[in-house]
Amino acid sequence: MNSTFPKRLIEVDLPIKRISKHARNEKSVRHGHISTMHIWWARRPLAACRAVLCSAIWPDPVDQNCSKTFISSAKKTMLEWARNDLKLASSESFERLAQIGANPKLLDDPLELRKVLLDFIADFCDWNNADNERFVRTSQSLTSAASETLEGSTNKPLVLDPFAGGGSVPLEALRVGADAFASDLNPVAVMLNTVLVQLIPKYGGKLAERVRFWGKWVKDRATKELAGFYPDDPKHGIPIAYLWARTVRCEGPSCGTEIPLLTHMILSERKHSEVAVRLEPDSKRKFIEIKLITKSEAKRSGAGLLRRSSVTCPVCGYTTPAANVRAQFKGRAGGANDARLIAVVCGREENAGKSYRLPTESDFEAVAAARKAVEKLRRITVDGIPTIPTEQLPYLRSIFNVNLLDVNTWGELFTDRQLLSLTTFARLIRTVAEEEEPEFRQAIRACLALGLDRLADYSSSLCRWVPKGEFFGNTFGRQALGIVWDFAECNPLSHATGNWLGAIEWIARVIDRQVSSPSATVVLGSATKLALPDDSVQVFCTDPPYYDLVPYADLSDFFYVWLRRSVGQEFPDFFKNERTPKREEIVQLAERNKEYSYKTKENYEHLMEQAMAEVRRVLVPSGIGVVFFAHKGTGAWESQLQSMIRAGWTICGSWPIDTERGARLRAMNSATLASSIQLVCRPRKDSSVGDWRQVLHELPERISNWMPRLSSEGVVGADAIFACIGPALEIFSRYESVEKANGEKVNLSQYLEQVWAAVAKEALALVFRGGDATGFEEDSRLTAMWLWTLSSAENGEGGSEDEPSDEDEETELAASSPKGFFLEYDAARKIAQGLGAHLESLGSLVEVKGEVARLLPVAERTRKLFSADESDSSAKTRKKKKAQLQLGFVSELEQAEEAGSWGSKGAPSVGTTVLDRVHQSMILFAAGRGEALRRFLVDEGVGRDERFWRLAQVLSFLYPKTSDEKRWIDGVLARKKGLGF
User: Fold this and answer.
1) Are 201 and 517 a contacting pair, CB within 8 Å?
2) Is-above-0.85 flag for pTM?
3) Exposure check for the chain: N or C terminus, fewer CB within 10 A?
4) What is the pLDDT of residue 675?
């Protein structure tokens, strides 16, 4: 690397703990956040992007090559900050700034100046400071000073995001004083970026005011046309939600009753005012009456009728299997238009209490009238585009499961009344603001079109009613289109969640909050063919797609079809095709749809390498890049890293920042990333060949220096493992290739095996708190490392990409999922290999199924540790006692005690390894065998082994706080002193 260019701050330090705190807090922010303007999947927090961009643009003042001009400017700016803006500092920054304000010479120390700059970055990440004029102006001043030292930069550095998506990176680039180039292949993403970083900066607060005005204009006209389809109820107030259930016919002999597919009977969980559905089956009429019940009676309403998509008839008791239930929807386009209206939710004014009633004749008449109106619309086209969306909805296995109900077009996701409302609003948007200046009119319509997308998200037959808070769940509660059997329809003219004016207000608040700045350049195009000249970009920062985690193009077609009908004429280049481009999209979907046979893993990797090479072409030689990466799979990591190295990049750092959402059903006890890793990279300058022995010599010291740094910031587990990859890869990727003494080239996978081994060794030293772990057998070392790897996932997102799509399946999965601690098999294999352990020889501790490895819970080891040979009679005994036993393994202990107490002839033997003995003690404690535990520890001498207590302490630290294992091991440790140890 050219040594005349200084390192940037992100290459030497980053206050990741404080940045992560602000990124986590940002997830709960609502008003004014860009996520409320329009959905985009896997959008990174603004706090993380802001921190990364500041630290990637600003040079490190400690570096000997840092420009004196920047140092002088930074000192002046930070002194002014310390003297004039001390009140804006956080508690973590206050003391240092106060000292500098009193003694400016402290800034003569470059290290102190670096710390002040990092403090500023950490404080700037606070959501409340993002639009603070003083923070913004100060950051822009520092960026301006840095730009004078950046190669190819004039007034401002240019930041490139070739996968711009939801616009977080280009927005933050503008905020901190850089120019931004936002590119994406997806027209929906380009539309979002056009509004966010072009139109809003151009028109500012004036745009918010006119969006509110014209949004109200659209509402008034829509009300005149649609009010009759949402009839008021003088007694109960304005209908705000219609609760529906899809139906099937009972297939029981001589039955045929129409069954509403209810997954939940509760409609409201409001304290002291609960409301639920009660079904009253009539066997003579073969009909199910529906009643609404309240208060104490509602609490006893019971569960719904569905179990894993099969349904039991309340009339005859026959259970129609899941396959038959789904088969009944053939030819019914999802059954939304012949669903049964269960109840209507009404409210008189915003924030007032809600009331529930059964549907009336006027409700059914309104639905029938909407159906007739839509039949006419189906024959109408506008500019050659059908009024009702007829574009094909693809099938994506386990992602678009709604296809299983014979939903084949995007229009079939909606009821007829929903289609009538959405097409009405789309038509009004096309004609709005005629008297405004043409370019400004385009901006207004673009914002209103995003409002229509918000309305659509709350107006499909995949929206749920949430009883706990009495509000709508939107279509994209997750990045999939699953099956929702009982759905909620909003009234877009009301004041409740999902209404039109509410959508407009969310967008206007985003506009209000954005700071004034020049506009960015936004381009529709592939990341493999950037519309930029060579050596024109100073910084590139992006969050690329990860294999098959998010099918962006297919998901965004939901919005594309409505944007095409509302502002297609305003942005013809964006919406000239029926659907978003699929051929050039860099995702892996071949396994989910045979029509995407070309979207293979190999194709993904080839295109990603092309994209990384293209970015390398447009970046100046002294430029820097940051790639967000949050895939838990080691294979995905290796491929992303390989594509970057082949494209000419040197990985020079990696930082974990908490960017992922909270725990989901399948995330618990599985090694998913709580953070995304920011990979820092530079264009490779060295074309020499590296010596394998020298690379391996440098590796342990690099990991040894880096791991404690991460631990001090609270970064552990999977996050720490992947965060070590960046520093470790700098050693390897600085060379064009690395060779052994015999001339054999070393591939990345071989090197990463060594990285995992080095990380495992260093992690064990941390886990055992500096103690030597070599005195423990391989099962102890592997268990400790396994649990440590999981420690960052306790509140992490992730889990399987094949999450169930049906509500009832999700509930049952929670109860039926195997217990234990899960790792991706390849990660488990690498951890074991790094520890000198072998998964294959640990069958009583680890179970491998497909691509997943499971560390068995202690309870499942009872048979191995206490009674290896069990007779049929003992199995029968266990079955008989099961109902009265809290722990399923207690009967196995009883069998062991029948053979004799500890120390008696024929009694179970003491475990052969320290881990076995610790687990035996935990099981005895859990089963309430206090005397047996005493004899085990005292008479058998297990407690006299210092390693036993050391391992017990380590496991107490590592087991999840809410786990049974944590409670049991602490119970054993609590007896240590009383037993004389």
Assistant:
1) yes
2) yes
3) C
4) 65
